Amino acid sequence: MQDQENTQGQENQDAVPAEELHTANAEKPIEQSAEKTTDGATDSAATAPGAPTLEQQLANAVAKAAELQDAFLRAKAEGENIRRRAQDDIAKAHKFAIENFAESMMPVKDSLEMALLVAVPTVESLKEGVEMTLKQLVAAFEKNKLVEVNPQPGDKLDPMKHQAVSMVPAEQAANTVVNVLQKGYMIADRLLRPALVTVAQ
User: Fold this and answer.
1) Most buried of 31, 99, 141, 199 (most Cβ within 10 A)?
2) Which CATH class name applies to 146-201?
3) Within 10 A of 136 (CB to CB), how many other CB atoms are there?
């Protein structure tokens, strides 16, 4: 009986409490799992196929930056050249804007000078010379897109092209052109001088 009590006491001393045993078993697999996870990540990073190193990534970035800078400098230089050419073209256009018109007017001047060289001009010769000179002038105007503004009686008054100097009684609709006192002129689509007209009341 005494021997049985001694044996049971020894077993109780050697036994580990159930709570401590459960805790130890629970912590052990977690540590092993963590070790495996860390080792696996390290191996994966070290052996990733085709992954560039930091040095390669930096070299690629530097090369790309140099390429972009070169493209920017080229584009900037090209833009500067275009700007200079445009300025030169504008300066030439201002300087020689009337070159074509001047060429067209030279024959008109020649005709007038020749008319003055006639020693004893007759009325017929003067009229003929004036008519020829007027034809040359009209041709010069047409060549340079200088168009007459010459409304006909009864045309509606156009404030953009006509300037009414007076209103007169007339047997036609009000605000229509009665008479043209002076022709107007346009160059292309721009009005140079409005036509002076009288308008019906």
Assistant:
1) 199
2) mainly beta
3) 19
